[in-house]
Amino acid sequence: MARRLTIIFFTLVASLCPLTAEESVPPKSVSNDATAGDDSCLDDASDAKKSSVYVIGDIHGDVLCAISWVVRTGVIGNLLDESSKSDESASDVYQKLNNPSEWKWNDDQASLVFMGDYVDKGPTSRHTVEFVKNLTTAFPAKVTGILGNHELELLRDRDTRMMPYQRYSSYTHAVVHPGEYHNYLDDVRSLDEKDDIVLDQLYEAVMEVYAFRAHSAVRMVPELPTATTHHQHYGIQYAITDIVDPKHRDLARERLEEYQAAYLNAFRSGTELGDFVEKRPIVHLAENINTLFVHGGVSHDIGIQYFAKGKEGADMLNKVWWEHSHEGKLVDFLSREDDLGHVVYELLTYRGNHPGYANWETQGEFDDDESDLDQVCATLHDMLSKMDGIDRIAVGHTPNDEVQIRCDGAFLALDSTLGRWIRGTGNEYCPGPEHFERRQGVDVARTSRNGNYRCGDIKKVCEGQIVRLDSDMSVNILTM
User: Fold this and answer.
1) Alpha helices (H) in 84-162, listed in sequence order
2) Confidence band, pLDDT 50/70/90 cuts, at residue 122
3) I need a labelling partner for 377 at 20 to 30 A (CA). Which of 208, 443, 456, 471 fits?
4) What are the CB-based long-range contacts (under 8 Å, 24+) for 188-191?
C-alpha cells in the first residue's frame, strides 16, 4: 500500500501541538508554526524531547531575510541588539548583530542547516556569506551550511585563465547584482559620489538589456576584447558599458573593472571568505533524521554508486571536494569527465528528482503538468532502498513559492524563494528600497527608455517558508 502524506496548516500556532498524519502511515508528517524551545507537545511516553533540524533554503543575497529566518527558528538567543526594529534596512540590521561570542544556542536537541546559494541575485551576498560563516564558527556542531551551485560558480570564476566575459558572474541576470559590488570596496577604499553614479548607470543599462530581451548578447564586463572574436561564437555582442550613457562610459568601465577585481579577490584561496566557501560540504547527512541534504539533487545512478554506504559515501565526496576546491585546482577538477568533478557538479545542479524535469538536463525543458510524478517517485524510492541510513532527500536549487513535499515525504524541495530580490524580480537586477533611500533627490530610473521594461518593487518584508524536521520524521512548515 502506498504511503500517504497528510499536511495540516495552522496560523499563528507557535504554542499549539502539531497534528500528525495517521499513525499507521509512516513517515508521520505535519505542518505548523512551532518554534525552538516549545516543549509543551512532548509525547507523554517520552522522557526526552525529540531532536530537530531546522532548514533554511536558498537566500540569494538577502542578509535581512537570512537573519529574519534564523530569528524565526528561535534556536539562537541574543542574536541582535535589542534596539533593532522590524522596519530597518538590511545593512542596519546587519550592523546590529551582536558579536558572535555573545550568541547563545537555545535548544540542545536542535540543529540548523542552510541549503546553499547564499550569493547572487540580491545585493547583500557578502553579508549573507559572512553571517552564515559566523554561525558555523560560533556553533560548529549545530550549524551546517552546504555548498550551492552559485558558490561553486563563484569559486570557478577565480581562475585567472578565464576571460572576463567567460565568467559565470558576467551574465547580466541571475548572478552578481550590481548593488553587490559596493560591498567589497571597504577592503580597498571609501565609496564616493561617482560610485553612486556608476551604479545608477548599471541599473539603467540592464533595464535596456531586459527591454530588448538581449540577456545572452550582453555581458556585465567593462569591455569586450578587440584582438579576438572568440566571444562572438557565444553570441556575445556588447559589454554592459556599451549601453551606458556615453558621458559616463569611461568612468563606468574604470569602476566596473575595479569592482569585479575586488569581488573576486575577496573570495581568493587563502582569504577568510574564500576559505570558508571552499570548505562548505557538498552533502550533509543528518543521521538523527536519516535525511541527506544536497543543493541540487541526486540521480539514481549517483545515489546507488556513491551513497550505498550512506555516511561513508557522503564523507568521501566531501573530502574529495575539499581536496580540489582551491582556485588552482578547481577548474581542471570540474572539467575531467572521468573524475569525481562531474559528480560534484551534478549534485549541485541536478533537478531530476522533481516532477516535470525529465528533459531538463538534456534539453532545458520543463513540463509543469507533473504527469511523471509517479515515475519520479518510484525511481526515488528504489534509489533510497539501496542507500544505507538515508530515508529522505532534501534539496534547494529549484525555486517555488512554497516548500514542496513529494513522494510520501521522501523528497523535500526546500527552496521557497526566500530572498526578496528573486521573489520580487526573478533573475533580473533591480534597485531595492535601500538604493532609493540613499539616492533621495536623484531621479533614479525604474523603467527602460522605451518603456518596455519596468523594475518591480522589492518588498521590505521576507516571505516564503522554512521547515523543522523532527526525529519522528514529522515535517513542520514555518512561515513569518
Assistant:
1) 90-95, 125-138, 149-156
2) very high
3) 471
4) 188/258, 188/262
